[in-house]
Amino acid sequence: MRRILFLCVFCITLLLLTSTANIAMTQEISVLINGTNADLQDQQSYIDENNRTMVPIRLAEKLGALVEWDGVNKKISIVKGEKRVLFTIDDKKAKVNGATLEMDTVAVLTVAGRTMIPLRFMVEALNLDISWESSIRTVSIKEKDIPEKITKSQIEIWTDVDPVNLCVENNYGGVYYISVNNIGTEIYSFKSSFLDKDRNVIHETVTVQKSLLERTFKGRTYLKNEVFTIRLGCRHPEAQYLAVEVKAIDDNNNEIVSTKELMLTYDNYSDLANFLVPKELGDPRLTKAELLYIAKDPKRVQEKIDNVYDLIRYMHVNQYVFDNQPRADGSHDIRIQEGSYIWHHNESAEQAIISNKGICGSTANFAHYILKNDYEETGIIQISFGPTEGGHYINYIRHQGKYYIIDFSSFPTRSYAAQGIIYTVDDLSEYSNLCKSERKGLTVTIIVSYKTDSVLPIAHMGNSGLIYLPQGFEVNTIYNLPEYAPIFIPGPTKLPE
Hints:
The protein has 497 residues and is an alpha+beta fold. It is 18% helix and 36% strand.
């Protein structure tokens, strides 16, 4: 009898506890974002058994964050600005910008297939303010340091490259980045129109919505005084102009309209691409203002630029110059005689960045210095021509199983208006035929590659045309005429000051 009574009491207690937990989980919680109700529709928030408010991951998108779900590993990635938060289902350990932190509850996957995360942890990790009003069961989330009053109202539109380059047939062409500087206004309409030579509309995109920025532009919520970038695309063969129109309402409820028209230039499909960098090497990331800000500062340039596209844009924006003016002795490089040999040296990457100019060797140093830690492998390709024809230095990058051969000095030598030279090959050995085809009229005698921190000095002895390289470096011979094989000798003892 006692056993039966105990069992009944136990079951009733368990039922009450379960009912209490279910009541806690079914009681709806309101969430306000900057004073506006976050409509989560059928995804209801609740307080879990650890007394923590749980919300669907959709809420993070409403906060302007990018959300990714890895169903295989049951991980949720949330990125907003410089903050990145990583949750794992049923794991109390989370990561914030790579640092592991312990939570007092876990992210869960509900029976209905909803992914729920702890609200306070997520909000504070994204550096937002959060408060709880228990009497009305409401959570309030606010951006930090939102200015109470903005006195200036304007919109400015610009592009990083003007005129913009459109490649009709190239897979990487037809993509444009328009920057909008929005101060003290609420943008509600953004229109982009691609026009033909008579300015007839070929393709038009119009986004009209109050508080447009809360839901568009990669899902991020922008403050009223931020600069943001819109990516546009058109590959229509008759497109010759791009017209942009932005409309907004200022704090006094006055409409502001800002427009800009850009002329598009054309390049037919070719292995030589002008600002049309293979997508695998990365999209442009830095704004024009950022590229100007870091100019002539080697350390900042190396830290900020991490892809080929931004490097070329840096050269263009800051008007990096190919310096073909001879020195006092008539040479273009730095020459130091040691015994019977004349060693040819090039300026360092730092010197090229500070002076904002260089010949092919120092430009190759400049590019290698900036990109050497950003891809699987980076290196130098050295080309020698006939006895009186000189030589040339370019760069290569190995990334995702391909080699990308880039002549960075070809951009300034063509005033950034014509095609720059970028080849994509499966192996560096394929470059020999491309080089000979590209350098018609010159006798290509030697092509070598290496992965040193800068271009190697080379030595000549008389007018034989033979090339001497310093010993002790791993050098890969891509091509050479039989009579012009590279010769390795002890390196120079005197270096440029």
